[in-house]
Design brief:
By secondary structure, the protein is of the alpha/beta class. It contains 14 helices and 13 strands. It has helices at 15-28, 66-77, 99-104, 123-134, 144-153, 197-209, 224-230, 233-244, 260-269, 286-294, 304-309, 323-334, 338-343, 352-371, and strands spanning 2-7, 34-40, 55-61, 81-86, 110-114, 138-141, 161-163, 184-188, 215-219, 251-254, 272-275, 298-301, 315-318.
């Protein structure tokens, strides 16, 4: 099976790029599939991509460039099936509508993965998403909540919508936590407004006021688009907030783009993961999927993916505006004690290998139906 991908891709640093690379490598190994990527680029972004065995960068799609749209379609039509990542912000045109010209030109089965499904879309967002699903052979969402939202607020055919969960890396087990050390709360990902980091720092300050001796690690580089627009002003504002709240010495910023080994080490040392996101509509979180797979207890604001997956010992979803509930939940997590925390590290949620099997099955079924 020759898979074609339309998406951002490393060295671009964003969630879609990471998602596509993880899925592509899970599909080609050990399934004897191949993967060709049409890389979605910003207007001034360079095409250069590192060579990686099994994955080829075959073309680029640039906003406003009709020639690149035609070439993208030609490249994808040379594959057996195309997997298109849909997010409004990565494609050119009004609400990213330039992707529709590529979809219209495709003659192979198309699986479009919907990363954002809004319950209150603008008219433009509604038009683009409905057209993208109509032009696709199948649409994939990653949670049941996202499917329900899609069917309730958009005119799409239910039989064309599939739920395939977000995958997670099978990270090597680390045992970096030291018996007797103060507990650690971890938040990671690209640093940008909207991640709720201010809320996380305030909750941690309340935790310290309650006498809990802990460290809060905020790991990740500043988002490239934020960095290009305003430099490190946002990160500096977070450092200033921690200083103003008197917890500067206990809030540690790790300013690096995390490799799999880096993340495994941080998760191995973490006693709880905190996801204090601002969005109440976030359908999917790759960070949440990774934390679930690692088996670290999670406290998250009640965005849809968290509400659907945080059950039992996996973690707790708390109201966005209830700082006391977030602080109390963290306090309960950290009070479990090291042995009981370790017993909760069973992990849950599918690995990328398991998710790739679902995409492969769907692509083969769509190809057989097309042939028939």
């Amino acid at each position: 099976m020759r898979f074609g991908f339309l998406s951002t891709y490393p060295p671009t640093r964003c969630g879609l790029a990471t998602f596509t690379r993880s899925l592509a490598f899970a599909l080609i190994d050990p399934r004897s599939a191949s993967a060709s990527v049409v890389r979605v680029l910003d207007p001034d972004e360079k095409m250069a991509s590192p060579a990686e065995a099994g994955v080829r960068i075959v073309s680029a799609l640039r906003p406003g460039d009709a020639g690149s749209r035609a070439e993208a379609a030609r490249a994808l039509n040379r594959c057996d099936a195309a997997i298109v990542q849909h997010e409004y912000g990565i494609y050119g045109g009004a609400d990213g509508d330039e992707v529709l010209a590529v979809l219209e030109a495709l003659r192979v089965p198309v699986i479009t993965v919907l990363h954002t499904v809004l319950p209150r879309p603008s008219s433009g967002q509604r038009r683009v998403l409905e057209a993208a699903v109509e032009l696709s052979t199948a649409a994939v969402v990653m949670t049941e909540h996202a499917r329900e939202t899609l069917l309730a607020h958009f005119r799409v055919s239910p039989e064309d919508v599939y739920v395939i969960p977000h995958g997670a890396t099978a990270l090597p087990r680390h045992s970096a936590h030291r018996r007797g050390a103060s507990p650690t709360v971890l938040t990671w990902g690209l640093i940008a407004p909207g991640k709720g980091l201010e809320r996380g720092i305030r909750a941690f300050a309340w935790l310290r006021e309650r006498g809990v001796d802990a460290t809060y690690v905020i790991a990740g580089q500043t988002h490239p688009k934020v960095l290009a627009h305003s430099g490190e002003a946002y990160r500096e504002s977070l450092i200033g907030l921690a200083r103003d709240l008197g917890v500067e010495a206990s809030v540690r910023f790790v300013n690096t783009y995390l490799s799999s080994d880096d993340l495994a080490a941080l998760l191995g040392a973490a006693d709880a993961v905190l996801l204090p996101y601002d969005s109440k509509d976030q359908a999917t979180s790759g960070v949440l999927a990774e934390a679930l797979a690692a088996g670290v207890p999670i406290v998250a604001t009640a965005f849809p993916h968290a509400v659907e997956t945080l059950t039992g010992s996996a973690g707790i979803a708390v109201p966005h505006d209830d700082l006391d509930a977030m602080t109390s939940s963290l306090e309960r997590m950290l009070a479990l004690g090291e042995d009981r925390r370790a017993s909760r590290r069973g992990g849950s949620g599918p690995t990328w290998s398991e998710v790739a099997e679902l995409y492969l099955d769907l692509a083969e079924r769509l190809r057989a139906e097309r042939a028939a």
